[in-house]
């Protein structure tokens, strides 16, 4: 195996024996083979008119499969073997239509479009040959992978929007065109840089689509205080990012005597009006994903993982953890999709919860969030006034991901040491590094404004664009906003490409720069966009504040 798609890539270069995340080498290889086949399907589907149903199936399959390969989503070999079989079947269907419509097309098709096998052994053998290192030129490899990881992030957003019946054909077609382009050996670095920039454009589009899907379905997030203590009834803990699962779980647990708590990236569900009406939706339990081993043990009740991030579960609670959607782990119960358009059935969790002890208290108090674009704009006058009077000197976008690397304590220290006249704009699980600190307020505006999940990073871009308008600026970079972003997995890649597309410069990424950026590609990003890493709090503070 060779995987360097996330910030934890072993030794800062890549995982080669097993993932630091716990992904076994055979699963990593099978994920590579699945992505390879998605490229083949995409290649064959270009310019071909497919029947509507098949076209839809292709889009869904690509989205679903890319999302399944994202870091910490699915560790289950059987899932990837099945998906590879499905991919081969779907590819054959697409090929049939292609042959009908282009009978004279060149017979030479890329290997990804024609390779066949049906035994697991053959899948494993092929999987070892088609991974990241099969591209020998390190700059082309870097740009192909930057694009592929951006597409994985895009697929995550597309998947969530699709769950709420929001789709965008242009995004789907771009994903196919971009995947097919990674097979094209005639493309040079400049072509691939352009495609990456285009991915940023579609990243903005799909983030806007998901924002529309979430807010139209569940209402505009509201400024909300969330309890971080526990109640005395048994509970179910729901983690990940899928709001549709959140909705269904709340409906099905109503009146059962079982409380529902959010974990990690599901915390922002509390900000939506549609979920506030449930009295048994009682709070948030624990912290960011990487602390789940200890916290899931202490929760005492069932845990539902709707998306990443899963940490390989301990034996002590493996019988209480459930996966659904694109998540999977061998030996863990999986809740399948409902049949014939029915809802998923969470009754197994509810019955188990009734036999469990209430959660063990980890902490008490409240945290505040819900500062998505509409909520911030509702206090825009206050914000603008505070900037004009100098009460707020600068905003720091500190969105992104948390992770288990010790060096991430940088972000807690950075937040603590920021001058009192600065405000942090956050989204994603990165917030857990500072959302329980008492950083105070400026004229009634909390100094940490949480817009929501990493999926809601779009809100931060909308806020920046609206402020640019209010202040009558021509360039988004003239705003008093600095970007000190923590990244971990591939959704952060599409957010980064989207910010670049919006013209944001001088973004700092940490705790380490992506292993998949070759020195030359990193140089292009530094020279054209001012992208940089982080050093230490003191020096970075001086650099950001121009002191
Ligand atoms: Fe956090 Fe993990 Fe949100 Fe990422 S829960 S690092 O995949 O998606 O942020
Ligand atoms: Fe390593 Fe990250 Fe890949 Fe896991 S996802 S194998 S930690 S690079």
What does this structure look like?
There is one protein chain. With 547 residues, the protein is α/β, with parallel strands linked by helices. 45% of the residues lie in helices and 10% in strands. The protein contains 19 helices and 15 strands. It has helices at 25-45, 52-68, 77-101, 111-114, 120-127, 138-163, 169-181, 189-218, 243-253, 273-276, 292-299, 347-354, 373-378, 380-389, 409-417, 457-470, 490-501, 519-529, 537-545, and strands at 224-227, 235-239, 259-262, 281-284, 303-305, 321-324, 333-335, 366-369, 394-397, 422-426, 441-442, 445-446, 448-450, 481-486, 507-510. Strands 4-3-2-5-6-7 form a 6-stranded parallel β-sheet. It has a 5-stranded parallel β-sheet with strand order 13-10-9-14-15, with helices on one face. Helix 15 links the parallel strand 9 (394-397) and strand 10 (422-426). Helix 6 runs antiparallel to helix 7 (169-181). The longest helix is centred in the middle third of the chain and has 30 residues, at 189-218. The chain is globular. It starts with 24 loop residues before the first helix and ends with a helix. The mean pLDDT is 97. [4Fe-4S] cluster binds at residues 3, 6, 15, 21. The modification Cysteine persulfide is found at residue 401. GO terms for molecular function: hydroxylamine reductase activity. Keywords: 4Fe-4S, Cytoplasm, Iron, Iron-sulfur, Metal-binding, Oxidoreductase. It is an enzyme of class 1 (oxidoreductase).
């Amino acid at each position: 195996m060779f995987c360097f798609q996330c910030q934890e890539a072993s030794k800062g270069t890549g995982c080669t024996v097993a993932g630091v995340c716990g992904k076994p080498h055979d699963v990593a290889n099978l994920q590579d083979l699945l992505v390879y086949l998605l490229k083949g399907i995409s290649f064959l589907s270009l310019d071909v008119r497919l029947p509507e149903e098949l076209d839809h199936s292709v889009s869904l399959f690509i989205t679903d499969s890319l999302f399944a390969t994202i870091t910490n989503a699915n560790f289950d070999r059987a899932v990837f073997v099945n998906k590879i079989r499905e991919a081969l079947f779907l590819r054959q269907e697409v090929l049939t239509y292609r042959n009908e419509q282009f009978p004279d097309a060149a017979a030479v098709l890329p290997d990804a479009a024609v390779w066949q096998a049906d035994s697991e052994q053959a899948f494993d053998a092929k999987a070892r040959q088609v991974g990241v290192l099969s591209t020998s030129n390190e700059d082309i490899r870097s740009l192909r992978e930057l694009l592929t990881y951006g597409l994985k992030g895009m697929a995550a957003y597309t998947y969530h929007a699709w769950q709420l019946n929001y789709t965008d054909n242009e995004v789907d077609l771009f994903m196919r065109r971009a995947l097919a382009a990674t097979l094209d050996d005639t493309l040079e670095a400049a072509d691939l840089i352009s495609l990456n920039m285009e991915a940023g454009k579609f990243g903005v589009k799909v983030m806007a689509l998901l924002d529309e899907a979430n807010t139209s379905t569940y209402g505009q997030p509201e400024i909300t205080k969330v309890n971080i203590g526990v109640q005395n009834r048994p509970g179910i803990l729901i983690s990940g990012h899928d709001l549709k699962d959140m909705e269904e779980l709340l409906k099905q647990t109503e009146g059962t005597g079982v409380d529902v708590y959010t974990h990690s990236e599901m915390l922002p569900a509390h900000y939506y009006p549609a979920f506030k009406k449930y009295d048994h939706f009682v709070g948030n339990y624990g912290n960011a994903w990487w602390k789940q081993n200890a916290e899931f043990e202490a929760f005492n009740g069932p845990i539902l993982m709707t998306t990443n991030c899963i940490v390989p579960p301990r034996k002590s609670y493996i019988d209480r953890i459930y996966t659904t959607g694109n998540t999977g782990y061998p030996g863990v119960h999986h809740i399948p999709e409902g049949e014939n358009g029915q809802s998923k059935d969470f009754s197994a969790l509810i019955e188990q919860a009734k036999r469990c002890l209430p959660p063990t208290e980890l902490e008490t108090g409240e945290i505040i969030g819900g500062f998505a674009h509409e909520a911030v704009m509702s206090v825009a006058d206050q914000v603008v006034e505070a900037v004009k009077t100098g009460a707020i000197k600068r905003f720091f976008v500190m969105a992104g991901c948390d992770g288990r690397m010790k060096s991430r304590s940088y972000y807690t220290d950075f937040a603590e040491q920021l001058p009192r006249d600065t405000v942090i704009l956050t989204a994603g699980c990165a917030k857990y590094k500072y959302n329980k600190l008492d950083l105070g307020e400026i004229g009634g505006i909390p100094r940490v404004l949480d817009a929501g999940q990493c999926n809601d990073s779009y809100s931060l871009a909308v806020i920046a664009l609206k402020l640019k308008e209010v202040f009558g600026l021509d360039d988004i970079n003239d705003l008093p906003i600095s970007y000190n972003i923590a990244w971990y997995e591939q959704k952060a890649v599409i957010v980064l490409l989207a910010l670049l597309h919006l013209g944001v410069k001088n973004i700092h990424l940490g705790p380490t720069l992506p292993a998949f950026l070759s020195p030359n590609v990193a140089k292009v990003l530094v020279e054209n966009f001012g992208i940089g890493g982080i050093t230490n709090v003191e020096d970075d503070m001086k650099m950001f504040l121009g002191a």
